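User: Could you go from structure to sequence for me? I need the amino acid at each position, not a summary. Structure tokens:
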């Protein structure tokens, strides 16, 4: 009787045991799943909500108002930098080039040569200018920079090259050489080139007038009136009955006399002496 009761009790309690075991298995499975979803560093479970992605930024479109303004500022800054670089390069180049008033000395004769910067000017003279010739029509001419003798060739310089002195007024080496022809001047230049190892020449008509005017547009570099001539040139006075008074040999202070030595009269603004007067430049 007791044995039958035990069997009956076992079968009555078996469903509960099975239910308990099933619950245990479910709990274990849940625990394992939870453990697999957590990393050793404490990462979130797979079924946990994902963290919000960090915001992404991109350059605004070119036509955006703010973006366009920034782009314009960059472009302007770049343009300013390029302009500054260009000006610096020009300044360096200018330093290397001769400047107005620079002087170099010839090794053979000791002649001082002044740099005349290039430029454009009105060559000729207006129709109402006194003493004007018919072929002196005004027209624009441009010349490149060139070196020109600071003074007329002196008798001392001529003797160093030619070995003789053809001048009529032989009062010293600082006086200009005169009584020479165009052919004589060419002989002097050819011999000087052979000794100096350079290439000298006479100025062209345009170069000479450009240098003589020295940036002015008046009849003479000191003005239209001949009254101030004696400050700058050894010329005939205005009472002399000479059409081209600038070309006559005359000392303004001593009356008709002789040529004046180098440095007796003021230069023009290019630093050139006797571009008019003292000797005939025809």
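Assistant: Here is the amino acid at each position, in order:
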């Amino acid at each position: 009787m007791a044995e039958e009761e035990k069997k009956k009790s076992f079968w009555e309690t078996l469903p509960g045991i099975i239910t308990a075991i099933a619950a245990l298995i479910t709990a274990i499975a849940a625990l394992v799943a939870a453990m697999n979803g957590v990393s050793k560093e404490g990462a979130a479970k797979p079924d946990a909500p994902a963290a919000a992605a960090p915001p992404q930024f991109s350059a605004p479109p070119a036509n955006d108002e703010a973006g366009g303004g920034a782009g314009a500022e960059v472009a302007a800054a770049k343009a300013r930098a390029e302009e500054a670089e260009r000006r610096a390069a020009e300044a360096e180049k200018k330093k290397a080039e001769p400047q107005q008033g620079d002087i170099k000395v010839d090794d053979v004769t000791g002649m001082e040569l002044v740099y005349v910067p290039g430029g454009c000017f009105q060559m000729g003279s207006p129709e109402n200018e006194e003493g004007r010739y018919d072929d002196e029509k005004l027209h624009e001419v441009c010349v490149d920079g060139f070196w020109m003798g600071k003074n007329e060739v002196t008798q001392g310089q001529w003797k160093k090259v030619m070995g003789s002195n053809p001048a009529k007024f032989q009062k010293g080496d600082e006086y200009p050489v005169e009584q020479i022809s165009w052919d004589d001047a060419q002989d002097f230049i050819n011999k000087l080139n052979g000794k100096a190892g350079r290439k000298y020449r006479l100025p062209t008509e345009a170069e000479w007038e450009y240098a003589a005017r020295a940036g002015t547009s008046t009849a003479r570099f000191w003005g239209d009136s001949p009254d101030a001539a004696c400050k700058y040139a050894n010329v005939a006075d205005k009472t002399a009955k000479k059409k081209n008074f600038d070309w006559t040999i005359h000392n303004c202070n001593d009356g008709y006399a002789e040529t004046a030595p180098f440095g007796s009269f003021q230069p023009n603004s290019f630093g050139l002496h006797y571009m008019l007067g003292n000797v005939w430049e025809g």
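One structural detail worth keeping in mind: Helices lie at 2-36, 65-96, 155-162, 182-196, 205-213, 229-232.
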